[in-house]
Amino acid sequence: MSEPKLQPGSKNLITDISHLTVGNATDEKAQTGVTVLRCTDSFVSAVDIRGGAPGTRETDVLSPENLVGRTDAIVLTGGSVFGLAAADGVTAVLSYDNVGLKLGDKGPAIPIVPAAVLHDLNNDGDKNWGNTPPYRTLGAEAAKAAKVDFNIGAVGAGCGAMAGTLKGGIGSASITLENGVIVGALVAVNPVGSVVMSDGKTFYAWPWELNGEFGGRKPPPSGDSVDPFPAHSRLGWARAGANTTIAIIGVNADLTSVEAKRVAMMAHDGIARAIRPAHTAFDGDIVFSVATAEKELPHEPSPLRHGAVARIGAAGADCLARAIARGVYEAQR
Known about the structure:
Blueprint: E1 20-27, E2 32-49, E3 56-57, E4 70-77, H1 80-83, H2 86-96, E5 115-117, H3 135-145, E6 162-163, E7 166-167, E8 169-176, E9 182-190, E10 244-253, H4 257-274, E11 286-295, H5 303-331
Parallel strand pairs: 4-5, 10-11
Antiparallel strand pairs: 1-2, 2-4, 2-11, 3-5, 6-7, 8-9, 9-10
């Protein structure tokens, strides 16, 4: 008898993991936006940066050798360097809700809110915002809008994104493993590379598709181009820092900071599976990871635990590849 096929969670979103919510805020006039992952508690987190032109805030605090290693929210945003202000808005909302570190009897709560940006400043949106870019406001709106059910496609941080020559977007996907561990991905897709094969329709992520979630299209009989920079990439328009894929992997297991880092590292393979080429000098590819600790893995020292973490990392890569294709697919609809 064949093994049962693994399936997505009920929503096929990162919010299939309890205690995670996602909010989008979109500025249609400026063709930009912000997407925020909120945590109901301060959860173990990590980050791994592979792109050559990242734009970030508070990523060092997630390094395993440093003190905190946890997050209250993670921000994915358009706007390049201006977009980093979105984290200010999120921080203010969370602190007002009394979320964050308490370092004494006085003073406000101090939320830990890492952020990563993508570059969408060259699209046709109106960026004449003078000395008041909209990102702090958009960040606050996205934080307040966070919920279990959220839209994917050309919304939030994906509003002004491009995936090669196609419209980019926000994508998400999940998978439920045999032991009840749920792995999910959330991604803003804006790479210089192509997400589709030479026919312009078949996603490179097609082998990992579940239940026709991004159209169910198979490769053309003629195969695909062997050119390292395929036709639907943006090599001719590439500028350092002008492209990126920024993502979050969530899991409901009790990972340590070091294990969360390993999951983020492994999940980058999902970018390489879904985008060709990936991790270029023009991209700022970043993967965060968040572990909510609902499911207990085998205790250390145990080869079983290392195996369980490896399976989570592999599932994270698969989910991220699917989420990338879903985000672009939904943005075209």
